[in-house]
């Protein structure tokens, strides 16, 4: 039988999927955003609210007192990722989900967040279901990237340098299905388009990723964090 989660108790990231609830905390200076996330978390089964902080010192105190499973950090309060690095270097179990302001929704910023130790990125203006999905998936993912940010990251190599172009949403969908092992005919059926249209999307995707073939495109996408390996839930 799965042991219940006890507020203040931490378990290794790999075991969090077995917990009854996920403790959520937030570092953000805007009261309305803090209250909104608190309401969202409290009304979502499987999540519980650990608290919010408006500055770095309060965030450290909150972490030491409640040990949340996921800490969401406003990108405006950690633009260079130094605070994230401090937290994650001192606690390897710390799971940081960076909430990106509009100006920070770039490949360079997202890649820097990951290099500093963040485990996920999500836009600040994301819909509530997107926020909930990010909170659920970030603890069990190597990297969690909100789907709306995927085309942006596809336009950068692992060092955050732009490649030849940004994947369209349809090209990204095709990439995901290729990674799932589908051939062109099955992809066409899944997306309700012709096989020739699928081939066109693949050509564009390969060119933009600088990939030799389908397998190379998938390998590149996993390496840059555009695709995240599926995990048992």
From TrEMBL:
Gene3D superfamilies in the cross-refs: 3.40.50.2300
Where do transmembrane segments lie in this chain?
none
> Which Gene Ontology terms describe the biological processes this protein takes part in?
phosphorelay signal transduction system; regulation of DNA-templated transcription
Read off the SUPFAM superfamilies from this record.
C-terminal effector domain of the bipartite response regulators, CheY-like
List the SMART domains: HTH_LUXR
Q: What UniProt keywords apply to this chain's record, in alphabetical order?
A: DNA-binding, Phosphoprotein
The record places domain HTH luxR-type at 160-225
Family annotation (InterPro entries): CheY-like_superfamily, Sig_transdc_resp-reg_C-effctor, Sig_transdc_resp-reg_receiver, Tscrpt_reg_LuxR_C, WalR-like
Question: Start and end of every Response regulatory domain?
Answer: 23-139
Indicate where the modification 4-aspartylphosphate is found in the sequence.
74
**MF GO annotations:** DNA binding
- The protein here is known as DNA-binding NarL/FixJ family response regulator
The species this protein belongs to is Kutzneria buriramensis
């Amino acid at each position: 039988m799965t042991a219940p989660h006890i507020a203040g108790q931490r378990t290794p990231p790999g075991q969090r999927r077995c917990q009854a609830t996920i403790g959520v905390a937030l570092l953000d200076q805007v009261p309305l955003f803090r209250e909104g996330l608190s309401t969202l978390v409290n009304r979502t089964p499987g999540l519980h609210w650990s608290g919010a902080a408006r500055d770095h010192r309060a965030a450290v105190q909150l972490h030491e007192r409640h040990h949340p499973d996921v800490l969401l950090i406003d990108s405006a309060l950690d633009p260079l990722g130094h605070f994230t690095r401090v937290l994650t270097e001192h606690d390897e179990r710390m799971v940081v989900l960076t909430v990106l302001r509009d100006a920070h929704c770039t490949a360079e910023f997202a890649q820097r967040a990951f290099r500093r130790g963040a485990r996920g990125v999500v836009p600040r203006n994301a819909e509530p279901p997107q926020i909930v999905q990010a909170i659920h998936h970030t603890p069990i993912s190597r990297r969690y990237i909100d789907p709306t940010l995927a085309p942006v990251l596809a336009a950068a190599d692992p060092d955050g340098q732009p490649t030849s172009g940004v994947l369209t949403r349809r090209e990204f969908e095709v990439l995901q299905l290729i990674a799932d092992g589908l051939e062109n005919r099955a992809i066409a059926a899944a997306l309700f388009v012709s096989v020739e249209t699928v081939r066109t999307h693949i050509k564009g995707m390969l060119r933009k990723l600088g990939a030799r073939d389908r397998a190379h495109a998938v390998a590149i996408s996993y390496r840059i964090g555009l695709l995240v390996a599926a995990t048992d839930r």
